[in-house]
């Protein structure tokens, strides 16, 4: 393969289910060795796109090339070089931890000695060596996700697909998984992931696309997207709720000259280069928030501007 050729190339890619179009003509390039993300809420078209890339769901229209090959004619050759970690764990509960890796590796035709060696290496990589004889049902949620990732690496894939890799995990388990994914990227594995966690995308992705309702709303590195679509800081202002529940809507008119506003049900977001100045001017106008917070802009702010809703809607 030519080094400069994208690992994934999509042009006008579409996916329909009956009369519903889940993916509406997107263009995507994923470069070798990068971590690329699809960011967006549930129903944005992320998982449908990933299933097409994984060659388990045919494209309705458009052009798609994976590893330089056409999924319509080269599906088996592509799948042999992919690692796939689906959103839902598909581990075999009848097998212990080690055998989940061993048996899966044998599906790829890897000889017994080699697959045993790889299984041991992967258990060490995901910190599950001491659980090698444990049943899957005995593992915590974080351990199951780590085992799923280990299994997706048995065939030493050129491209690793991760669909919502940390959904449902506690913060500590998420950070352990982030460290392992970062190490994979450092080792040269190309990662493609979907997520609706903006902090996950910022931590792991070199580039990403923001998807909403089947289209790409923006593309770039996390820093580029924040610089282009948001401000350096955000002041969050919370006020007491009135009887009719319209407190924030009513007060927004008194703040609109301080910067771009987003009025949410529980708070007002004021986008500015200086959040502390926003708070000072709010007080000068006789307004007394019950709580204030100044923070840096995040990808969630980018998504809120582009789509008018938060990532977790």
TrEMBL record:
GO cellular component annotations of the record: plasma membrane
Keyword Transmembrane: no
The organism's place on the tree of life at top rank: Bacteria
Domain ABC transporter residues, every copy: 8-238
Membrane topology: Peripheral membrane protein
Keyword Lyase: no
Gene3D superfamilies (alphabetical): P-loop containing nucleotide triphosphate hydrolases
GO molecular function: ATP binding; ATP hydrolysis activity
BP GO annotations: response to antibiotic
Main location: membrane
Keywords attached to this entry: Antibiotic resistance, ATP-binding, Cell membrane, Membrane, Nucleotide-binding, Translocase, Transport
Compartments in which it is found: Cell membrane
Family statement drawn from the similarity comment of this UniProt entry: Belongs to the ABC transporter superfamily.
Name by which UniProt lists this protein: ABC transporter ATP-binding protein
The species this protein was found in: Nocardioides piscis
């Amino acid at each position: 393969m030519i080094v400069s050729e994208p690992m994934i190339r999509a042009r006008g890619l579409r996916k329909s289910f009956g009369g519903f179009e889940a993916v509406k003509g997107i263009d995507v390039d994923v470069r070798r060795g990068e971590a690329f993300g699809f960011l967006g809420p549930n129903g944005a078209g992320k998982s449908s796109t990933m299933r097409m890339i994984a060659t388990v769901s045919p494209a309705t229209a458009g052009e798609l090339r994976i590893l330089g090959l056409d999924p319509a004619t080269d599906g088996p050759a592509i799948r042999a070089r992919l690692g796939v970690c689906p959103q839902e764990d598909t581990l075999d509960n009848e097998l212990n931890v080690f055998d989940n890796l061993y048996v899966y590796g044998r599906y790829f035709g890897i000889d017994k000695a080699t697959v045993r060696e790889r299984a041991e290496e992967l258990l060490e990589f995901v910190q599950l060596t001491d659980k090698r004889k444990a049943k899957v049902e005995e593992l915590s949620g974080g351990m199951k996700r780590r085992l799923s990732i280990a299994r997706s690496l048995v065939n030493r894939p050129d491209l690793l697909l991760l669909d919502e890799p940390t959904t449902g995990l506690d913060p500590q388990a998420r950070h352990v998984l982030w460290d392992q994914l970062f190490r994979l990227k450092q080792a040269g594995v190309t990662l493609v992931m979907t997520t609706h966690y903006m902090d996950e995308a910022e931590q792991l992705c070199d580039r990403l696309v923001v998807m909403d309702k089947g289209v790409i709303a923006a593309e770039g590195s996390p820093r580029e997207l924040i610089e282009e679509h948001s401000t350096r800081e955000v002041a969050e202002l919370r006020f007491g709720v009135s009887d009719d529940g319209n407190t924030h809507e009513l007060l927004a008119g008194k703040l609109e000259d301080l910067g771009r506003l987003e009025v949410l049900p529980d708070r007002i977001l004021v986008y500015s280069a200086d959040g502390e100045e926003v708070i000072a001017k709010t007080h000068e106008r006789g307004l007394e928030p019950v709580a204030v917070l100044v923070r840096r802009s995040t990808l969630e702010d980018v998504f809120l501007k582009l789509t008018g809703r938060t990532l977790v809607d």
